Amino acid sequence: MSAQSVLTHLSQAGVSIWLDDLSRERLRTGNLQQLIDEKSVVGVTTNPSIFQKALSDGAAYDEQVRDLALRGCDVGEAVRALTTYDVRWACDVLKPVYDSTDGVDGRVSIEVDPRIAHDSDRTVAEAKALWWLVDRPNLYIKIPATLAGLPAITKTLAEGISVNVTLIFSLERYDAVMDAFLAGMEAARDNGHDLSTMGSVASFFVSRVDTEIDKRLDKSGKTDLRGKAAIANARLAYQHYEQVFASDRWKALEQAGAKPQRPLWASTGVKDPAYDDTQYVVELVARGTVNTMPEATLDAVADHGVSRGDTVTGSYAEAQQALDDLKAAGIDYDDVVDQLEVEAVQKFEDAWNELIESVTANLERAGADISGDGSSSPAGSGPAAADREGSA
């Protein structure tokens, strides 16, 4: 099966293929458009780690950093100017997909500052600021599914802002996320927003579950259960999704024009080389889902992935048995998912701090160069140059 046909079959089976990566270089060279044209990519997700890596590679950001230094911007404003520039540009590239799918796909996500993941009010305030800064209808604001994030999700949706809920690990928290979504859409309806223009996904993390549980199984010597938890957990999440979006509460919103909050499989790159490097894609095929992949996973699926149609519905009893077997083996599910959430927030916070340090160093270097030569640089002329001046 050719690369194009594997990815096309996944799309036909109801899976929206998104890229879990973004950089100025990818946009400048037209690589994102190429992935849309050749590998069925219909969306993009970002996170602080992705931006930290992008801004540390190459010279693609130098001109804008110089402009920011000339203006005397502080590092917080600079970080937001740099990241929203890329996201806005990506939104423009994906706008035809957004239009052709009636707003279901063609979306690009940007995350609120992870350092405020446990502060509801600040999260909502930043979500509104990012929505205004990017100023594109196909934007998603990523909000972590922490306990403080749940009311922030509802309040942000109530403002008419589309949301990608991220860092979901447990079935219980996923239920709370869907409830927050329904409450937010009800409030948006009552506030007079057009629900048909809004969207949301719930990012359920996959590979990290296996990584942590496998580590515990290795210590206990019960290695026959390795590699079974993550897919089982995600499949049961889809069962919960089916139940919630068959409810009367949802049907009332649907009649008002709302689109369902789709499950998004995140963290789909395989960490253990003993496993099939496409398993978190091909084993989680179900209609109405999103799978966001790092490019290495996208390439692996295109190269040797096998599309077998729906691999989720009808598997719920087997999935529940897998979790029951893990419990019998002494694996504390609640402890695992709690630990994963704490670690995930911390990892993104660490990446954000590294991003700030990197931008600070770049601003200082640009400032020194400006002081040394006394010259200034004209604004760039890329596709988003005019918008950049409004936010930089």
Q: What does it look like?
A:
There is one protein chain. The protein is an alpha/beta fold. It has one domain: Alpha-Beta Barrel (TIM Barrel). Helices cover 58% and strands 11% of the residues. The protein contains 17 helices and eight strands. It has helices at residues 3-12, 24-28, 31-39, 48-56, 62-71, 75-100, 120-134, 149-158, 171-190, 207-220, 229-244, 248-255, 279-282, 295-304, 316-328, 333-373, 385-391, and strands at residues 15-19, 41-44, 107-111, 139-144, 163-168, 200-205, 262-266, 289-293. It has an eight-stranded parallel beta barrel with strand order 1-2-3-4-5-6-7-8, surrounded by ten helices. Helix 13 links the parallel strand 7 (262-266) and strand 8. Mean pLDDT is 93; it is low at 374-392.
Brief overview:
The protein is of the alpha/beta class and 392 residues long. The protein contains 17 helices and 8 strands.
* Uncertain stretches: 374-392
CATH architectural category: Alpha-Beta Barrel
Specify the structural class.
alpha/beta
Number of domains: 1
Question: What's the helix count?
Answer: 17
Mean pLDDT: 93
Beta-strand share of residues: 5-15%
Number of strands: 8
What is the third-level CATH name, the topology? TIM Barrel
The gyration radius over C-alpha positions equals 21 Å
Classified in CATH, the superfamily is Aldolase class I
